[in-house]
Amino acid sequence: MTKTLAIKTLAIQITLLAALLSVPPLRALIEQSMVWHMLVQMPLLVLAGFSTAVAWPQALGDRLARYNFFGLTGFMLAQCITAYWMIPAMIDRAVVLPNADVSKLVGLWLTGVVLRQSFLKAPLAVQLFFVGYSLPMLAWLGFYMFSTDLRLCNAYSLESQLRAGWGLVLLAAALGLGWAYSVRAQLLPSSSDILRQP
After folding, report:
1. CA 101/CA 116 separation, integer angstroms
2. Burial class (CB in 10 A: 0-12, 13-18, 19+), 187
3. Digit-coded pLDDT (tens) for 30-55
4. pLDDT at residue 65 above 80?
5. Which of 104, 117, 137, 160 has the CB geometry, 3.0–4.6 Å to 156, for a possible disulfide?
6. In 3-68, where do the E strands start and end?
7. Of the candidates 1, 96, 94, which has an alpha carbon nearest to the alpha carbon of residue 45?
8. Interior angle at CA 174, CA 173 and CA 179, nearest 5
9. How many CB atoms lie within 10 A of CB 195?
10. Rg of the chain (C-alpha set)
11. CA-to-CA distance for 50 and 13, rounded, in angstroms?
12. Computed from CA positions of residues 142, 144, 149, 151, in that sequence, does the dihedral angle turn out positive or negative?
């Protein structure tokens, strides 16, 4: 199996897995647990879109590139979509209403697509601004969820909310470390480049 085919297969598998969590019998997982909804399905949807953009860059990237100068349009769109689906009332709607759940599937998948294209086009300063704004917001939401005594989502128990809050803080930290590692890999010369230097 070639590398390209492996990436395409992986992208399809991630997309199917994320979508199947909205279909019975797996739907029971996101109906009963905020952790499964916010920390498994939602990140999987973004990852599915991201990996699809990696697998089919010409089909997706070229059509979006003209509207995405320096990655700014894509970052702003991704920020708006993710902020919308972090609102507790919208999470409740996705649990109860099938059309809202479909909107969530499409919107978060699209978020992954535009993030891939934006990180390719954005200079480091723009990436830093986006990451420095988005991840603290995600961590703050998680902190608020596990520190408040109020149930923010009617669909989930306070205990489930508490676990999801801790998970969001850890997710924000992991994403930040992942981004920092990728930047470090880009900035530091590889061993082969060092050997080529006179």
Report:
1. 23
2. exposed
3. 999 999 999 999 999 999 999 999 99
4. no
5. 160
6. none
7. 94
8. 100
9. 8
10. 18
11. 13
12. negative
Residue 135 has pLDDT above 80, yes or no: yes
pTM: 0.90
Distance between CA atoms of 179 and 107, rounded to whole angstroms?
22
- DSSP letters of 122-150? S-HHHHHHHHHHHHHHHHHHHHHHHH-SS
Please classify residue 189 by burial: count the beta carbons closer than 10 Å to its beta carbon, then call 0-12 exposed, 13-18 middle and 19+ buried: exposed
C-alpha span between 49 and 61 (Å, rounded): 12
Calculate the alpha carbon distances from 163 to 9, 118, 149, 167 in Å.
Answer: 32, 31, 13, 6
**Nearby residues of 96 by Cβ (< 8 Å), 6 or more positions away:** 155
Let me know how many helices (H) and strands (E) the chain has, helices first: 11, 0
Q: Which two tokens stand for residue 156?
A: 């989930």
Q: Which of 51-55, 147-151, 156-160, 183-187 has the lowest mean pLDDT?
A: 183-187
How distant is the alpha carbon of residue 154 from its chain centre? 24
147, 175, 173, 182: which is closest to 161 by C-alpha?
147
Give me the count of residues in the chain. Answer: 198
Structure tokens at 3: 């590398």
